[in-house]
Specification:
The structure is a single chain. The protein is an alpha/beta fold. The protein contains 13 helices and 5 strands. A 5-stranded parallel beta sheet has the order 3-2-4-1-5, with helices on both faces. β2, α2 and β3 form a beta-alpha-beta unit.
């Protein structure tokens, strides 16, 4: 068939795209309608994950990768050809069709891009898990890492995330959130290999989902909460039942920075309605403790306040040196 002849019924080309993040065979109803109604279905990839399901549904799929001219010719006489796109999206074919359409010499078929499946929110997390699997298996450095070896990076990434938040840099914030997320996925991937108590990223996600639902009875249950304070009360009450704690200090990590530790202890005391004044003592440590308790009572994060003051001090040092201030 001469692709340059002006056929009165040039036909229709449907480019069918699918997401590898959705289980094969789960296609939209318009996609199934187009596939069943097509005069011909083509796919360049004989190992495409959708093909077994299409054939099971009685759809004949020809493994072929026609050029744009050939595809237009296959549509002559009003025929409909569905192209099941590969993961790359058939850029060579679509570019060729665009060139022919722009030439004005060819009676172009009706062109339709038909998404057959869509990514759900969070679908790119599946890509991250797959990439991490491969890196863990093939990278000489990553394949040897342990939880203990990675611990310092988790701390560093957390601090860099806080810095991005305080700087108000949106691009940096997005990047640092990704770095923190990588730590979670990396540790979960290592945990899969534990011979005694393995767990996966799905176990991690399932655990936090269960925890969030249980600690939000005002969202997922019958309780009500109209203020942030009531929400916090729900959270602390359910958390205490879960952890079976006997002291307000249970679960407070003593390894965190000193001001944050003091503020956390003061927060626990204030929330519980206890009156426990800071202990009397001499020295800078006791002075800092008293200031941290006062800051918490006034709704000020002492760590953040000290970092802000330290940045101002850094700028003063650079000014005294004649060094330009950092952005």
């Amino acid at each position: 068939m001469n692709a340059t002849s002006f056929d009165p019924a040039p036909g229709r080309i449907v480019l069918l795209t699918t997401s590898h993040r959705v289980a094969p065979g789960l296609l939209s109803w318009p996609a199934w309608q187009a596939l069943h109604a097509a005069d011909r279905v083509l796919c360049a990839d004989g190992a495409h994950p959708q093909l077994p399901y299409l054939r099971e549904a009685g759809i004949r799929v020809d493994e072929a990768s026609p050029a744009a001219e050939e595809l237009i010719g296959a549509c002559a006489g009003g025929r409909t050809v569905v192209v099941v796109a590969t993961g790359e999206g058939e850029p060579a074919l679509t570019d060729g069709l665009a060139r022919l359409a722009g030439s004005g010499r060819v009676a172009m078929p009706e062109l339709e891009l038909l998404p057959a499946s869509y990514d759900l929110p969070g679908a790119r997390l599946l890509d991250l898990v797959q990439v991490m699997d491969r890196i863990r298996a093939e990278c000489p450095w990553s394949s040897r890492q342990t939880h203990k070896g990675l611990a310092k990076y988790g701390i560093e990434e957390a601090y860099e995330l806080v810095e991005a938040i305080e700087d108000g840099d949106r691009d940096e914030l997005r990047e640092e959130l990704g770095d923190v997320l990588l730590q979670v996925v990396f540790h979960a991937r290592i945990a899969e290999e534990d011979p005694d108590a393995p767990f996966s990223i799905d176990d991690v996600a399932a655990g936090i989902v269960t925890k969030l639902i249980h600690r939000h009875p005002h969202v997922f249950g019958d309780e009500t909460a109209t203020t942030p304070e009531e929400v916090k009360e729900h959270w602390l009450r359910t958390k205490a039942v879960e952890k079976r704690r006997t002291s307000l200090t249970d679960g407070v990590p003593l390894g965190q920075p000193g001001l944050a530790l003091a503020s956390k202890l003061a927060s626990r005391v204030r929330t519980a309605g206890l009156r426990v004044p800071p202990p009397d003592g001499e020295g800078i440590g006791y002075d800092l403790l008293a200031m941290a308790v006062r800051a918490e009572a006034e709704g000020v994060d002492p760590e953040a306040a000290l970092r802000a003051a330290a940045r101002a001090y850094r700028d003063a040092i650079r000014a005294a040196e004649g060094t330009p201030a950092e952005g």
